[in-house]
Design brief:
By secondary structure, this protein is of the alpha+beta class. It folds into two domains: 4-122, OB fold (Dihydrolipoamide Acetyltransferase, E2P), CATH 2.40.50; 141-260, no CATH class. It has four helices and 13 strands. It has helices at 23-29, 141-159, 169-183, 193-199; strands at residues 4-11, 14-21, 30-48, 54-66, 74-80, 96-102, 111-112, 117-122, 186-187, 207-215, 218-229, 232-245, 248-260. The strands form three sheets. It has a six-stranded mixed beta sheet with strand order 7-5-4-3-6-8. The chain has a five-stranded antiparallel beta sheet with strand order 9-10-11-12-13. The longest helix has 19 residues, at 141-159. The protein is elongated, with a radius of gyration of 22 Å.
C-alpha cells in the first residue's frame, strides 16, 4: 500500500502543491538519466516578496538522451542566483551529464536544482554507463566531415540539373540521406518556443514537423508541407541537418526535398 500526503510549498507569492509518497515508492521511480545542456538563461524567473525583496533564479534547459522511455523529454530546471559557480559545467551548452531523477514527476511541474541527484559530468570522450539503455554519443568527426562533403556535392550537382524534374534528383537524394539518418534517432517533444523557431518546427496549418535527435550533437528536422497548386495536391517533404558547434546549433548545407502524393497525418 502506498502512503501519500500533500505538501504545499510557498515561494513568495507562488504556491506549489506536490505529493510525497513513501520512501519505497520514491526509490522505485528513480532512474539514472543522461542529458545534455541546451541553454543557460540568467535571471529567468524572480520570486517576489511582500516586503519588496526578491530572489532571482537562473534556468537550465536539459535535453534528456536516455533512458529510452524518457528520451523525448526536455526539462527546464531553476537554480537560485549565485548557487552555480561561474565556471560550473551546468552553464555550458553542449555539456553532457548524468543524474538521478524521479521519472514520475509531472511534466508541468516547476523543477528546481534539488531534483537532480548524484550529478556526474561527462567529458567529450566519456563512454556511456552500462546501466543507461540506449544512450547517445557525439557523432564521429570523420563521419560528420564525410556527410557534410556529400551534402555539399549534392547541392552543387543540383544546380546543374535542369527542369522539368522538381525537386532536382540530387536534392531528392539529399533528402533520403538525411531521412535515413533521422530514422536512427528519437523524436524530441516538449520543445520551447525558441527551440521551435530555431529548428523551424513550429505547428502551422497544413504542416507536420518532427525534430529527431540522432547524436548528442546532430539533429535532423523533418518538415512536411501540404501543398495545393495548379498541379494538384501533394506533400513537400524537407529534411534539414543541424550540428551543435561552438556552443550553438547551426544548420548545415541545403535541405533535402522530395514530393509525395500522401497528405501529412495529424
Amino acid at each position: 500500500m502506498t502512503n501519500a500526503f500533500p505538501i504545499t510549498l510557498y515561494f513568495g507569492g507562488l504556491c506549489f502543491l506536490s505529493v510525497v509518497t513513501a520512501a519505497s515508492d520514491e526509490a522505485e521511480s528513480q532512474v539514472r538519466v543522461e542529458a545534455i545542456v541546451q541553454t543557460y538563461e540568467i535571471a529567468a524567473m524572480e520570486d517576489l516578496f511582500d516586503d519588496g525583496r526578491f530572489v532571482s533564479y537562473d534556468a537550465v534547459t536539459l535535453n534528456i538522451l536516455a533512458p529510452k522511455e524518457m528520451a523525448d523529454r526536455t526539462i527546464r530546471v531553476y537554480f537560485q542566483d549565485g548557487s552555480l559557480a561561474d565556471d560550473s559545467p551546468m552553464r555550458k551548452s553542449g555539456q553532457r551529464l548524468r543524474f538521478d531523477f524521479d521519472k514520475n514527476l509531472p511534466r508541468e511541474r516547476q523543477l528546481f536544482g534539488g531534483v537532480l541527484g548524484n550529478i556526474q559530468w561527462i567529458d567529450a570522450t566519456g563512454a556511456t554507463d552500462a546501466e543507461i539503455d540506449g544512450s547517445m554519443r557525439p557523432i564521429n568527426v570523420d563521419v560528420l566531415a564525410s556527410l557534410e562533403r556529400e551534402l555539399n556535392r549534392l547541392e552543387e550537382s543540383a544546380k546543374s540539373e535542369t527542369r522539368p524534374m522538381y525537386p532536382p534528383p540530387s536534392t531528392q537524394i539529399a533528402y533520403y540521406l538525411l531521412a535515413g539518418l533521422a530514422e536512427r534517432g528519437v523524436s524530441l517533444t516538449g520543445l520551447s518556443e525558441s527551440e521551435k523557431r530555431l529548428f523551424d518546427v513550429g505547428r502551422q496549418g497544413g504542416r507536420r514537423n518532427k525534430l529527431m535527435s540522432v547524436f548528442t550533437d546532430v539533429r535532423v528536422a523533418l518538415i512536411d508541407n501540404w501543398i495545393q497548386d495548379k498541379s494538384g495536391t501533394y506533400v513537400l517533404r524537407t529534411a534539414v541537418l543541424y550540428v551543435f558547434r561552438k556552443g550553438k546549433w547551426a544548420k548545415i548545407g541545403s535541405p533535402g526535398v522530395i514530393t509525395d502524393s500522401d497528405p501529412p497525418g495529424p
